Fold each of these.
Amino acid sequence: MHTGMLGLASGMIALRYLPVLPPVGWLLPMLCAGLFLLFWRRFAFGFFLLGLAWACFQGQRAIDDRLPAGLDGRTLWVEGRVVGLAQHADAVVRFELQGARSRHATLPKTLRLSWYGGPRVNTGEHWRLAVTLKRPRGLLNPQGFDYEAWLLAQRIGATGTVKDGQLLAPASHAWRDRLRQRLLRSDANGRAPWLAALVMGDGSGLSPEDWKVLQATGTVHLLVISGQHIGLFAGLIYGLIALLARYGAWPRALPWLPWACGLAFAGALGYGVLAGFEVPVQRACVMLGLVLIWRLRFRHLGLWLPFLLALNAVLIIEPLASLRPGFWLSFTAVAVLIFTFGARLGPWNWQAAWVRPQVLISVGLFPVLWILALPISLSGPLANLVAVPWISLLVLPAALLGAVLMPVPWLGDGLLWVSGGLLDWLILGLTALAGYFSPWSPGSVPISVWALSAVGALIVLLPAGVVLRPLGWPLVLLAVFMPRESVPLGQVEVMQLDVGQGLAFVLRTRHHTLLYDAGPKVRNLDQGERVVVPVLRSLGVQGLDLMLLSHADADHAGGALAVQRAFSVARVLSGDAAGLPAALQAHPCISGESWEWEGVKFSLWQWDGARDSNQKSCVLQVEANDERLLLTGDIDVQAERALLQSPLSVPTQWLQAPHHGSRTSSSMVFLKALSADTVLISRGHGNTFGHPHPQVMARYRALGMQVLDSAEQGAVWFRLGAFDSARGLREQRRFWRG
């Protein structure tokens, strides 16, 4: 039985790793083959094929529900109903529209929309909106968040920006919105947004600094509704009834165990409805229901049975759940607890029962966080030792009771005030702890090294006294002490990051690292913090020898402050130093300056006749083993003519497209003089500037130049000086990537 369930779950999880989905015509033979194997009692293989067929069928349904390519970038009038809680932050309203209809086209069932400067939008309202629609698309960088996978797991078929709209019908049942507004208006010691996150799963009121504190201390799971909240609340109800029964306070006419299980599950469902009953909450309720049934009737079958039943139930309901990081974290945490508690000999004292689970879960989650490219909190075990009981025993009960009893002003508001005060004490402690320990991002390593470290974590989780247990820690520590592949002398590792409509290049020699531009910052979206910093950490960069900002425009220098906060930067240069924030302490680019790192020559140039920031761009030429790269920033045709009179006007194999390939750059004279083999374009997919311009692309094609476009290839990297070809991250195929 266990073998069959493992095979079924493995088949559905295998969907995550498919480069392409099999043709629909193959699903029926796959299904028949699975049934045939089951008939011959090959349960593991038979259930694997059945699970894979079901997952592929659901994956294809989600892919088919995406916006047609012909509608990408078009503006249509659509009608639909708002679902979930809309997020209102920084003058932007973000919400999901379900059942969207248009007179001109068939649309996906669910759209994720942004309305800049829009009015308040509430759950259940019907709107008619003018929306510029886009196919699901996201930035793609090493160790980065895969936005396209997340959208597919949410079954969101398109994103869009609202241009105009009108409310057609108000919400008939907007009680969750009204409750949220009441919570946000409550006097909760200044922590009302935190209570809204804890009670309703609405984290939109938390600031970026709040999220950083939670991430640094590994406590994000405590302040947004997750499976742990559902389990804690149900456990409180179950434990209270069990305590009453133990001391004779529970009515003898009512058997305590069925009532404890039933009321615990009812409480979990009620909390889930309050939280919007989203997929993580659904997953938690399924798991909890199976555990309670096991506790009631099937304890003799062991702990792994409800775990496997819950795992398969979640995947059958939504096979795309395996694309979510939360799926792996929640099931891994539960598996670690079953493995460690189920294997212990004798009971633990209360100190061990309090401390050991946090330590063991941290060890067990380490390889999962590593392979999912999520930051690892060094202070997480310590923070959770206090935060878990503080939230579960004190803050959460008071907050939920306060939310339910808000119609009784003095009682409901009083409970919210108390819970807010308790939460405030905890947040002050977490903030202090976050100041001492920053989250750690282990670098990318070969899968074999990761597997050895994962095996080490498993060995560490074995019961005390097992002979091999001391060998686990050295394997785990491979993540810390594994020597990284070094760049050969005389070569440069070049990576063009996918930062959307902006620019960021990382150049690494054997012992030095240079960052050319730091990505864009638009409102609160800082790609320096979201993309550049995580990539540098994944590469094992400890500090920057030089941050060269071509000029002061926000799409090139916007992320510089975030980079400077995260790393020590020995020197900052810019072609427009006066236009940058004073905190960067940037020095002006000096035309003609050059230096050498490990046999690689770097040379700067700037047009002395520049009149605007684009023309002031500091151009960098890198030469390794007679192979050259030219990084041009946003220079235009006039600056290009001046550059052709400089020492940098020599044959160049790699060229960064000036000004993202705009019409005012990449003149034919300039391109012919450099005779580049490959041009690198960094731009946002479907950007409003029309980059790269069709005329410029025609010039590139006429000269036979290979075009590597970040919007099409994702991050691109190559070795300058090795005369090798470049690789784009989208070459690593996944079925959800367009």
Note: Residues 640 and 670 are 6 Å apart (CA to CA).
Amino acid sequence: MKTFNLPDLGEGLPDAEIVRWLVKEGDTVTLDQPMVEMETAKAVVEVPSPFSGVITRLLGKPGDVIDVGAVLVEFDGDTSSSTPIASTPKPASEPAASAAVQPAPAAGPQEIFKLPDLGEGLPDAEIVRWLVSEGDSLTLDQPMVEMETAKAVVEVPSPHAGVVARLHGAPGDVIEVGAPLVTFGTAGAATPAASEQVAQSEADEPEKQGDAGTVVGAVQVGNQVVAESASAVVKALAKKLKVDLTKVIGTGKDGNITQADVKQAKKDGKLLNASAEQTQVLANAAVNAVVDDANPLNYKASPAVRSYAREQGVALSQCIATGKKGSITKADIDQAARQPAGQRASAPAAAVDRATTGLPSVQVSVEPQTVRGVRRAMAMGMAKSHATVVPTTLMEDADITAWPKQDSLARYVRALVYACKIEPALNCWFDGEKFERLVHPAVHVGLAVDSPDGLYVPVIFDADKKNPLQVRERVQELREKIETKSLKQEDQQGATITLSNYGSIAGRYGTPVVSPPQVAILGTGRFRNELKLTANGISQRKILPLSLTFDHRACTGGEAARFLSAVIEDLQKPQ
């Protein structure tokens, strides 16, 4: 029997709630098969199986809260997540030594830890930086590496206690889910009992190990900003237990607040009151501390600016951002450095104001910037399209003067559906290697959505079966998922044709890019009022510019023209 403990789900939180089991006891599961949906404080994520085998026991039921590191599933059978490198067997003729005198083997079996799904539903992640080195001895759940997905930078913890034999990859490398990440040596295959003992010893003596990944931040309390020094896990625990960290005295290394401090404060039923001297110590720590700039989600600043801030001993939280879209510049660092330590800004109003505008946050820097996450996926998709698609664009106008006040996006989707029924050749997928096309009976509309992180194209499934209200509800759902970074991979797959409403920002006509294996994308431009000569004389008309790009390998010009004509026909209807 082998146990699987709940890993850190990439949120830095101490526990997660079971939403629903996707398997049951007695089921045979394969490697990476989703087993359970767990809800953290930020999202609902699927936890995959780390082994192939038979489930003998599920620890918990929907609604139960499971601590990170606690047993979640027990397995029996072929519980292998990878092919172990076996130690050299002894010859059959050699007698076995007694257990009392048998020496330890020189080189025991190794175990390969593969990159798990980090709760994002994405196929890969990029190494930001290693937190351990080859030869290091790790404890259960000790952070090993920071990985960047399309949505966040997350820490991947060690699945057990052991010795690091090999690190697979260097910072900047992209590792696919299921590919080797860390190889553990002889001590890597810790037993469940040993892992539990390590976890228990860590819980009993948290002050001895310190707070790995500690960040220094500031918590707003009324009109006063009080410094706090605590890890993300401690902060999450305090939030869960409703403990005010600003009134807790840390007993950990360098005065850091530990989980034990938070639990003790809750157990006592009252918060510790810091003395005037201790308050001054905390205030000084806030002035002199430099925030952890490794996480690019903390503040809007380029890598070069972050490095410069560390050199100058200035915390990004002490800077008033004057750069584009609320980004912090080197000039802002210099300005903060010139201020007396006690007078530096602690919560820059300008930065907060810009952060709440909803405008995209672009890091402005003369230094090269690595394209990651959603932007990297977008770049790869555009490159694939450029290399494989033979694009041709038709442009025309639709007269929508007769429209009453209504949801224009829902009308665009309806017109696409109508045109797909009139000319289905553009609602298809094309395989350029096999020269095969698949014409779809259903219409699944991909919707290009601009965001600060890059371009998302989530899907309105079965758009041909939805009314305008249902379309709007689906669009709103997708936008909320993008804003909360909870959009799953399945939300972005399966589109049969795409809509790009760039006119909601600016632009009349364009050459939208087809996303293979799709063969068409419709771009809707910005409305304009135009004087036109009609049978009743000159009148002012409301005009909608349209741009249809199609893959000329899969569609003829006539098919594309008939499709665009059908779109215009539906758009020009009053209702």
Note: Residues 375-571 form a domain with the Chloramphenicol Acetyltransferase fold (CATH 3.30.559.10).
